[in-house]
């Protein structure tokens, strides 16, 4: 089986029209040789019937990359659970809601605005049914200007959407979107990744 594949590659390389200089160059890290086995069989009309074609992707899938990054971001945010609330805070000494989200994304090389209402202008707006781990939830919690003033990071969507955020009373906590207060204050969900 291995010999057949090698013979096939050699035959294809003999009929190649590349110059010798070009073929002696080292292949780049991102280069990939793709062989269309069916066309090779048709062109050379041999009696091979069992050719196994193994395709390796050239680049990692973007969705998988985003999922992995989302998990890393949420795990990073969870380390702050129990930290006291501090307006403008971004450390374990004290943190506010946008500081928690800002730091969790920044730790993974994604820069977001520092204020929740500005964060709500980034990424793509999604329906709550499509919310996934790493998405952001935005709220209006009764401020005078009737603008977004609170943000949470989705950490779990099993059964009920759970999010981590910082509140003035409880510090960094995990809440459920189904809780009456948060459900009534909810404005939108956005996907950054």
Q: What's the topology here?
A:
Elements (H helix, E strand, L loop, with lengths): L1 H13 L5 H5 L12 H8 L17 H17 L11 E2 L2 E2 L1 H10 L9 H4 L4 E3 L9 E4 L10 E7 L5 E6 L3 E6 L3 H6 E6 L2
Antiparallel strand pairs: 1-2, 3-8, 4-5, 4-8, 5-6, 6-7
Explain how this protein is built.
By secondary structure, this protein is of the alpha+beta class. The chain has seven helices and eight strands; from the N terminus they run ααααββααβββββαβ. The chain is 33% helix and 19% strand. The chain has a six-stranded antiparallel sheet with strand order 3-8-4-5-6-7. A two-stranded antiparallel sheet has the order 1-2. The protein has two domains: 2-44, no CATH class; 62-191, Alpha-Beta Complex (endopeptidase fold (from Nostoc punctiforme)), CATH 3.90.1720. Residues 66-193 form the NlpC/P60 domain. Keywords: Hydrolase, Protease, Signal, Thiol protease. Pfam families: NLPC_P60. This is C40 family peptidase.
